[in-house]
Write a structure and sequence with these properties.
Shape: globular
Strand order of the largest sheet: 1-2-3
Helix content: 55-70%
Radius of gyration: 26 Å
Amino acid sequence: MRQLNDGPGANVMKAPTHLYEAFSAMHLHYVRELTPSRNWHVILSCDSFHSRINPGENVMNAQKYVAEAIGTFWLTFAGCGSAVIAAGFPHLGIGFVGVALAFGLSVVTMAYAIGHISGCHLNPAVTVGLAAGGRFPPGQVVPYIIAQVIGAIVASTVLYVIARGTAGFSLADGFAANGYGEHSPGHYDATVCFLMEVIMTMMFLFMIMGSTHGKAPVGFAPLAIGLTLTMIHLVSIPVTNTSVNPARSTGPALFVGGWALAQLWMFWIAPLIGGALGGVIYRWLSAGPTGMVEGGTPA
């Protein structure tokens, strides 16, 4: 510890009553207090408290998690709801095209609503992909994913309550769950379905990384991302019923049970792999300028 007085001849009384010297030990910030009696006392720095317990930051994080839950609720309810309720409606059903648009529009609308709050991921594969691409803090990945899964489960619960209000409803029809083999809409085998989910999620992250890049046109990212998700559904609904989103797959699978839960592993692993690949590849192609896709940050 550095000596604060040069010796007995120094005029201690001209110094402040309390002199402080900051130092760092074991990554913790402390302050030592020197009294006129020259006794040293260790006290915890107020700055350390502020950096470790920041109420404003905690509130901001909570807002992000709630926004992600609400956004994923909307994506799952609107997208899966269009498939369960509207796709096969007699004479007026919206079909594959309508379902694809519903998923895409749910992202576009919610991106404008909560993009400034949380970054509007709505998807564990997007969160993982952005983290892999250096565009999202790794420490926030797990809380975001938990919030997204909660939102999807709540949406599936509400959708189930509404859908069962008609006599013709049956979970045996699939409830918009994702599947492979005999549970693929086109009866595609597991290998093909896995490949489709990896490729589609990889390209989804590639588009997200590009449209939110610092050199991309400002304000158009939600449109580019929503249209990309629409295209993905137009191509892959016949193959897997389109997941590219583990949270969206989890909600309906919990209600269908049986085969849907048994096959759910694919719709976690494949999208997460694809998302990470998309993030890493785009990061290699265009490292900067970059921006964190996480919404607002505390002042």
